[in-house]
Amino acid sequence: MSQADRVLHLLKTRGEQTAQALAETLALTTMGARKHLQALQEAGLATASERACGVGRPAQYWRLTHAGHARFPDRHADLGLQLLHQTRELFGEAGLAQVIAGRERQLLAAYLPILRAEPDPARRVARLAELRGAEGYMAKVEAREPGWRLSEDHCPICAAASQCRSLCDSELRLFGDALGPAFGVERVEHVLDGGRRCVYAIRLLAEKSAP
User: How far is the CA of 147 from the CAs of 7, 133, 167, 181, 203, in angstroms?
Assistant: First the structure.
C-alpha cells in the first residue's frame, strides 16, 4: 500500500485528522504528510477546514470528499440497486420486505453458531466485529461504558440502503438477535442521517446474562 493510500485509509477509518497526527501514525515528517494531503486535495479526494484549538493558530483538519469515499467502492452497488428496483417494481413493497427478511434470516443463521459459541460477552461483541469486517464493513469495537461501541467505517450496501432504509432496520435487528437477548443494541450514528459512519452502542442488560 502506498503512503497516499495509507493516508486515504486513515482518513476513512479515523475521520478528520491533522497533518501532524497522520505524520505520527505513518512515521513521516509533518511536511511529508502535508504533501500527501495536498496531493489528495488536488486530486479532489480530500479537503481541509480550520478549527480553533485553544491558544495559537487554528489547526487544519483533513477529511475525505465524496470522491475520496468513493475510492472504497460498494460491492456490486449497481447490481444491488438494479435488483432492488426490479423487486419493488415486480412484487411491490410487501415483496421487497420478504426479500430483506430472507436476507436477515440467512445472515442470522451464519452468525448465530459463531457468536453463541462465545460465552464471554466482550468476546462475543468482538467476534461480531470480525464477521462484519470480513464482509467489507471495516468494523471495529471498543469498550465504552456501560458496554461497547461497534463502528463500521465503510458500508458495502450503502447505495442500496439509501434507496431502502429497511435494510438498515434489518441490520439493527440482526445484531440484537445474533448477540442474544442479554444484549441491548442501539444505533447512535448513521451514515444515512449525515454521520461519517454507522456506530452501534451495545450493552448487557442488567437483569440478564449472555446464554
Answer: 30, 20, 25, 15, 4
